[in-house]
Write a structure and sequence with these properties.
Keywords: Signal. InterPro entries: AB_hydrolase_fold. The chain is α/β, with parallel strands linked by helices. The protein has two domains: about 250 residues, Alpha/Beta hydrolase fold, catalytic domain (Rossmann fold, 3-Layer(aba) Sandwich), CATH 3.40.50.1820; about 140 residues, no CATH class. About 30% of the residues lie in helices and about 10% in strands. It has eleven helices and ten strands. The strands form two sheets. Strands 2-3-6-4-7-8-9-10 form an eight-stranded mixed sheet, sandwiched between helices. Strand 2 and strand 3 form a beta hairpin.
Length: about 450
């Protein structure tokens, strides 16, 4: 069974999970003080309707609709040669600001050229509110039926938190959709937040901070005082020392094991992850603390069957966080679980070096899906990139096209074997579906041009 794998967050130019890299500012408060969450229903979110209008792409004639529905902004676009099918797009995490905004799908042009209509919602809340994103995206599909017409098929897709929304939609409303394409999705749900805490408490322990003094809530003191100390103690600002190498090894094993591009990934995310310690364990939307690190296992090597004396010492020296029982609710509450119970064809994309929403999110999803006997309707593909959602439009478009062929013709597309450690560790892993090399990738000449 795959144990809790460490997760990380992306720094790329096109952040899809966060509105900005990390938290806008560390909250005030003392060590271990949980900030009180505000009820989402009481927050004065708004849509700037002047930002909703949009133009047709050059060379493609479309009908466009926009407005506000049930508190959420939306955009709908239908090509003149509409094939009768719809793609619902779910955007990623927008931070906790008050303004609600809509994103066009990155493969918008490709969809329209093939005759697909698309629609996207801002959701009626911000924050990590997957449940509301699910409800508002589903409601937008119903609105489309009234404004345009009932589609012959409807597909769902999304990035990051939107990938989480996509997977939950496929499980909660399987009868309403024909195929799903979650990309860089948080398909391990709260396991992502466990990792953020794992990374920080392991780093604290390796830097010499005693268990009783380790911090599990983000505040100004931690960011301004403790983190610089940790980085100095572990050599994170220069050459990693022995303890820094241990943090790197633990992170690799928590996030999917030995795999290509991990060295680059760790350099990219090692500082950024310190800002992902939660300011509150309920993430502003759950009934209580969702973080649970009691079953996390911290290892320096790839022998997952046993712990060395040194590994045992680390596991005993790290503070553990227990989730609140009320967060185990099922359905559309808090941070919904992805159970792997979808009933429609699904293709999932992930980059091998993502540490914002790490690769192991996809592994967890596959394990749960197979445990539920649904392995035959989930295909996973790995792209050789370290950026969160760092796919190019060719990679996304090919995945979508293969999904539609699967739905229409019954031909299941090829994917990657992501649960076999030997396959994942191979230097060529991820080249099959990568289109165009990344400059930092030593396997660039093996990838598809």
């Amino acid at each position: 069974m795959l144990k809790k794998t460490v997760l990380a967050i992306t720094l790329g130019a096109s952040l899809i999970f966060t509105g900005s890299v990390g938290l806008a500012a560390p909250p005030a408060g003392g060590k271990g003080v949980t900030q009180k969450a505000q009820n989402q229903n009481t927050i004065p979110y708004y849509v700037d309707e002047s930002k909703l209008p949009f133009e047709s792409p050059k060379g493609i004639e479309t009908d466009r609709y926009w407005g506000v529905h049930k508190g959420a902004g939306y955009r709908i676009e239908v090509p003149k040669n509409w094939n009768g099918e719809l793609v619902l797009y779910a955007h990623g995490f927008r931070g906790t600001g008050l303004e609600l905004t809509v994103s066009n799908p990155r493969i918008r042009g490709n969809l329209l050229e093939q005759g697909y209509a698309w629609a996207a919602s801002s959701y009626s809340t911000n924050g990590y509110d997957v449940a509301q994103g699910v409800k508002d995206t589903h409601a937008l599909g119903s609105l489309f039926n009234g404004k345009v017409g009932k589609p012959s098929r409807t597909y769902i897709t999304g990035h990051s938190m939107g990938g989480h929304i996509t997977a939950v939609l496929a499980e909660q409303y399987s009868n309403s959709y024909d195929g799903a394409l979650p990309m860089c999705g948080v398909t391990g749900d709260t396991e992502l937040f466990d990792f953020f805490t794992d990374y920080n408490v392991v780093a604290q322990s390796l830097s010499g901070i005693a268990k009783e003094d380790q911090q599990t809530i983000l505040d100004a003191e931690y960011v301004g005082g403790t983190v610089p100390l940790i980085k100095d103690k572990l050599g994170l600002d220069g050459n990693l020392n022995d303890e820094g190498q241990k943090l790197k090894s633990v992170t690799m094993n928590l996030t999917g094991g030995q795999r290509p591009l991990f060295d680059t990934a760790f350099v990219t995310y090692k500082d950024f992850l310190f800002n992902q310690l939660p300011p509150q364990g309920d993430y502003g939307v759950a009934a209580g603390n969702v973080v649970n690190t009691t079953d996390s296992v911290y290892q320096f090597d790839d022998d997952m069957s046993t712990l060395s004396p040194e590994e045992k010492a680390l596991n005993e020296a790290v503070v553990r966080v227990v989730s609140d029982p009320q967060t185990k609710q099922q359905g559309l509450t808090g941070v919904p679980k992805v159970n792997g119970t979808h009933k429609i064809p699904m293709v999932s994309l992930h980059t091998v070096g993502d540490l914002f929403v790490p690769f192991h999110m996809q592994q967890i999803h596959v394990e749960r899906t197979e445990a539920n006997g649904n392995g035959d309707i989930l295909v996973t593909r790995v792209i050789r990139d370290v950026e969160h959602c760092g796919f190019n439009t060719t990679e996304e478009s090919e995945a979508f096209t293969d999904l539609t062929k699967w739905v229409e013709e019954g031909n299941k597309p090829e994917g990657d074997d992501i649960l076999n450690p030997k396959v994942v560790a191979d230097e060529h892993f991820g080249t099959e579906f990568t289109r165009g090399y990344r400059a930092y990738d030593p396997e660039k000449y093996h990838t598809h041009e």
